[in-house]
Every structure is written in C-alpha cells, then in structure tokens.
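Technical annex B. To support the medicinal chemistry partners, we prepared a structural model of the target in complex with zinc ion, based solely on the information shown next.
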Amino acid sequence: MEPRASHYILLLLVGISLANPVRKPGPPAFQPIPGNVDITSKFLETNKGSSEHLLEGDLLFPKIKNALYCLNNNNNCFWKKNSSNLVEVPYTLSSEYSSTDISIIKNAMSTFHNKTCIRFIPRLNQTDYISIENKDGCYSYLGRIGGKQVVSFKRQGCVYHGIIQHELNHALGFYHEHTRSDRDKYVKINWEYVPTDKASNFQIQNTNNQNTTYDYSSIMHYGRTAFTTQAGKDTITPIPDATVAIGQRQDMSNLDILRINKLYGCVV
Ligand SMILES: [Zn+2]
C-alpha cells in the first residue's frame, strides 16, 4: 500500500535496549532475540532502506488521527467485536515466510488470545484485515484503517516474539509509551541528542491512558538511546531514577495486556 503524499505518515522506531531487559517470570515460550545484539541499531538499519515513506521507526499514519481517540469518537479506528464478545482481527500471511517464521508469528498472536479478547484469525472474506508481509522493515499502521492494511515483518530482523507483539499492538491502536500525554513526569527527552528530522518521533501525543500508570516495561516503550546522535548518550532518560530499564522487546507487560483489555472492553 503506497500512502498518498497528503497522508501524514509517521514512522516510529522499534526502540529496543537489551542492556537491562525486563523479563517476566516463567519460561520463554518464544525464540529469544539473540544476546548481545544491539537491536536498536539493527532495527534502525532494517527500516532505513524501506521503500515506504517511513519518517521514523515503525509506525505508519495513513490519516491524521489519534490511536486511542478516533476521529469523531466513532471508534472506527478499532477492531470490532463479534457476537461472542471477541475482537476478531483477520489476517493473511505472506507465502514468503518459513514454517519457523510462521510458528513465531502465530505464537506471538497466541499471547493475545490467552490474555485478552483479541483473536487474530485467518482471513476468509472479511473486508478489513491485516496483511502480514515480508517487506522492507518492521512497521504497522495505527489502529484499524479499513480494508487491507500491511503489517511488515521483514524476515531478516523483524520475526521476533516481542517485535511481533509490538507491531500488532500498533495495529490494535496503541502509540509508543514514551509519547503518551503524561510522559514528562516519567521520562526526560534529551533533545540535544535527538536529530532534528526525528524530533516528531519524541513528541507527546494526545493519548487515552485509560487510568493506567506509566509503564517503563511496556513492549511499546523506546530504548534509551533510540535515534541518538551520539553513541552512548540517552535520548530518553527515566526520571527520577535514571537506571530504570526501558525498551524491552521480550514480552508484553502486564500493563500492556491490561490496556488492551480496557480499550477493547474484554471480560477476562
Ligand atoms: Zn513502534
């Protein structure tokens, strides 16, 4: 899908820091991201050559709208519940994926199924659906845009449990955690290390925080050196405790799950 020039397209980084990953208890039911990999740099590199007009990282905005406050409050940017109160998100999968890729993607989807009322289901003939494709980066639109919408997981660099969860969360309508409306109380943006052309990636959004607390351990939070102009310098520093870990891409946090359930009115 080629976004029109008039569309406001915004790409946001898959911000990852594995220096202090926030791990949830229990055995990992997924393929972990290899150790000692600078995933922030890797994903910046992965998305850099994208033919999509990705201004930043991994999020496409086809329209000017907020994820959690739909235009006209009509909820048209969210996925719909079926008669069983389950929220169906039909998907198609590119034939370019290997069986291993597919099992990783489906396993990531299953975490939504186990803990929320979201159900990613193979598409039959539904009009609105996500098309999971091996394109040139890791990215998604924000919320349901209507019709076919691409979610890209490049085979080289994007097929990881946490990355898949992250992009699927965008498709459900979630912004990055560090751009939520109250973030200035929880993180400091070090603008001196933010490239001018990436500044919009750090701007506060008018988000619906659903009375949930700020979540440093969110799968939707950037890593501390995301887009930094100077190696080793933070663009995002947690406050008041600068040592708090941010940017994990291992698994959705409890708050990530809670917010999905709140946004979609899941009874779990
Ligand atoms: Zn993102």
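Notes passed to the chemistry partners:
The first strand starts at residue 59 and ends at 60.
The CA atoms of residues 47 and 112 lie 25 Å apart.
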